[in-house]
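hey can u run this one w/ 1-deoxynojirimycin bound, need the structure tokens asap thx
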Amino acid sequence: MKKQWWMETVGYQIYPRSYKDTNGDGIGDLPGIIEKLDYIAQLGVNLIWICPFYKSPMDDNGYDVSDFYTVDGLFGTLDDAKELIKQAHDRGIRVILDLVMNQTSDEHPWFVESRSSKDNPKRDWYIWQDGKYDKTGNMIPPNNWASFFEGSCWNYDEHTNQYYMKIFSNKMPDLNWENPKLRMAMAEMSKWWLDLGVDGFRVDAIAHLAKDTTFKDSTMNVKPGHYAPDWRKFSNRDRLFDYLAEFHDEVLAHYDCVTVGEVGGGAQVEEAERYAGYRTKGFNMVFNFDHCWKNGAFEDEGRTKGKLTTDVIDLKTTLERWILGSESKVWMPQYWLNHDHPRVVSQYGDIGEYHRVSAQMLGAVLLTLPGTPFIYNGEEIGMTNVDYESVDEFRDVWVRNFVPSARKRISEEQILTHLRRASRDNARTPMQWDDSENAGFTTGIPHLKTVGNYKTINVKNQQMDENSVLSMYKRLTQLRLNSDLKDVLIYGKFRLIQKEHPDIFAYRRYVDTDEVVMIANFRDTKVMFDFEYKKYDCVCSNFENSGSDFLPYEFRILRAKGV
Ligand code: NOJ
Ligand code: CA
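ok here u go:
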């Protein structure tokens, strides 16, 4: 493995819509990010990933792109984007954009052309199929595959009497990557942004570019009238790796850039190597989702009472499987959450008495794991899930599609509880800058309601408090990037300690003669952890404690003596 600059980065993901609004329209914008660059630099990160800000009708908040070359007016202008890149670079911060390759908006001129007639030259830039007929003669979708956003993955288009494929919302038709002209158009577009000065991409939904082009029904068992969530039909398929190698040769090989693909659920460690291995033509790393949802929040849509419990053994062994499986083969990104997941402190931490220490503990784990850590905006102050009282307060397209179908099987209370635990809006609320109205995010009406706890959980409060979550994140980024622990924390090997311990996540990181040990209590109770403490010095912790009894959510980063 050759050392690369992007291995020595800590990333910070920004959801522009909710970060900082500068013109009072209730929507965060690029000038807002520019305004906060000093804050971001002080946090100590040196890479930012900005979620899509291309022109879009915003059905899925920008993942439905209608023009890849234009900044949506809601977010600003292309000049703002250039200024943002320049000002970030001036502060030693690299900038990566979200590259959306699987689909466009149905309002993209390509699709407008494509749907106009069956013989339009852009027809096969998307995936069109004839419908089938059921026993009673009604037209039904070409097959029984489900979409990620409820219902069928096909949408009927009256104009030409065919269906187009859309694995997300109806307004997000999938592109046909079998078509070389489309592939070249995507390569051109990516080069255009790299030439403009961006340092790489987080590549959206990359696992889905190749589909099973037989389009045969899934044989998965589903109830009549339901669609089969058979994601293999359009995930991680062999053909995708041909597209990727071509994209690498056409685009990536010519730039000193970094690429992080989103491969999601279903991808195995071996596949990560195919996507991003040190010896493969592809990306530099890939996000998988396997360590998310280890408190059962996603599956558990019926439960309303009681707290969910983190399965610590499952969490750490899942991370271990990926980390050891990747060792000397592929570099990993690490993250607790992104804009598609709930807030981690609400999931694996505590939002009551132990809010501060549990958020600190989670930060300390993230920043001491192998790979490139990505902090999601607001995580550094311990922002929490929403406190909404009604289903109507949520905005996400996934929620809009989920609620009508959920109402057929569960109560309103169950839906609300489920959304408060699992909805993507949990991570999309306005960034909590201070205790003024709407958390200092906007002077207007925010696009999504601010979480009520902004009066106490906000940047301003935490900047003044050296014991805050924010101060801890700053200490941790320093430790990782600018201390004599840098080498061991970035390049050191990883081994779990007391793997079977049900409450504590503990591991060694070691390289040559240096060794760091991380011990983290994931419970809101005292937990015993026997260890050879005398051989180590504590370099960072959230409590003054050196015994073998770990306080609720206590963590300690220890370093072997005599190094
Ligand atoms: C993954 C993105 O992270 C998510 O927000 C989006 O809805 C889908 N891909 C579709 O682009
Ligand atoms: Ca704005």
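Residues 60, 63, 100, 168, 204-205, 262, 339-340 surround 1-deoxynojirimycin (ligand 1) (CB under 6 Å). anyway lmk if its weird
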